């Protein structure tokens, strides 16, 4: 998306909650690789999707500084919970700070650990899953969560364009770009009983709904 389109869309949509502006600013100032943060337009999309399905249980894989968590939490029903898994305390400290001061603090469970291990400990039925961690494991994450998604539930997978890496000739692709390309080519087969739509938001977002 060009800067011109992005700023036009931001200006035309509803204003962002102030705490998300603060979180983005603080992430830029204090955390390495701030570009990993989900960002304004995709964040508003996550919030809207969550509000539409009004989930009881959300799983986020890859917390970073908690921007996506807070966007997704906006749609939780009043007894709903969001579980978010992060491997790095260097990233999670800022998420913790913003979760504590948010109105969703009691509904957010931040889990430190490797997502492949931690997902399997959660005995939940998911209404909404956001996969946004180490991209080479997308397929494993999808296979782990898909059986636990309820009918009508959604799985969102971020960065499926690998910053353009999926368009490179095969022999020039880095290993994560190869993994993302393979995942994209297999997702309609992996999503048994589901339908797959891919949006060109930011770095590409796949949406899978269990039918
Ligand atoms: C793209 S960022 C997540 C952005 C976040 N979802 C947001 O909305 O701003 C990816 C995060 O996944 C974490 N991560 C990478 N590998 C992981 C793993 N195996 N288990 C859990 N978290 C992991 C990284 O430390 C990083 O904070």
How would you sum up this structure, described in words?
Helix 3 runs parallel beside helix 4 (67-73), helix 6 (115-121) runs parallel beside helix 7 and helix 7 runs parallel beside helix 8. Strand 6 and strand 7 (205-210) form a beta hairpin. The chain has a seven-stranded mixed sheet with strand order 3-2-1-4-5-7-6, sandwiched between helices. It is 42% helix and 21% strand. The chain is of the alpha/beta class and 211 residues long. The model has no long low-confidence stretch (mean pLDDT 97). The chain has one domain: Rossmann fold, CATH 3.40.50. It binds S-adenosylmethionine. Residues 36-38, 62, 64, 67-68, 85-88, 91, 114-115, 132-134 line the site of S-adenosylmethionine.
Describe the secondary-structure layout.
Blueprint: H1 3-12, H2 18-30, H3 40-53, E1 57-61, H4 67-73, E2 81-86, H5 89-101, E3 108-112, H6 115-121, E4 126-131, H7 138-145, E5 149-158, H8 175-190, E6 194-199, E7 205-210
Parallel strand pairs: 1-2, 1-4, 2-3, 4-5
Antiparallel strand pairs: 5-7, 6-7
Bound molecules: S-adenosylmethionine (SAM).
S-adenosylmethionine binds at residues 36-38, 62, 64, 67-68, 85-88, 91, 114-115, 132-134.
Give a quick summary of the entry.
By secondary structure, the chain is an alpha/beta fold. The chain contains 8 helices and 7 strands.
């Amino acid at each position: 998306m060009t800067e011109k389109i992005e700023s036009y869309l931001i200006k035309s949509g509803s204003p962002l909650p102030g705490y998300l502006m603060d979180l983005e600013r603080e992430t830029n100032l204090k955390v390495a690789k701030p570009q990993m943060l989900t960002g304004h337009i995709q964040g508003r999309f996550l919030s809207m999707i969550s509000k539409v399905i009004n989930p009881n249980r959300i799983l986020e894989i890859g917390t970073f500084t908690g921007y996506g968590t807070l966007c997704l939490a906006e749609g939780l029903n009043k007894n709903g919970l969001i579980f978010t898994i992060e491997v790095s305390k260097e990233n999670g400290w800022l998420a913790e700070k913003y979760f504590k001061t948010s109105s969703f603090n009691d509904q957010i469970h931040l889990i430190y650990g490797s997502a492949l291990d931690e997902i399997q400990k959660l005995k939940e039925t998911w209404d909404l899953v956001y996969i946004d961690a180490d991209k080479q494991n997308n397929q494993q994450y999808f296979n782990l969560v898909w059986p636990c998604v309820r009918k009508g539930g959604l799985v969102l997978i971020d960065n499926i364009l690998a910053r353009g890496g999926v368009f490179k000739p095969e022999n020039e692709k880095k290993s994560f770009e190869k993994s993302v390309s393979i995942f994209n080519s297999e997702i309609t087969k992996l999503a048994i009983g589901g339908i797959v739509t891919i949006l060109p938001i930011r770095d590409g977002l796949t949406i899978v709904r269990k039918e």
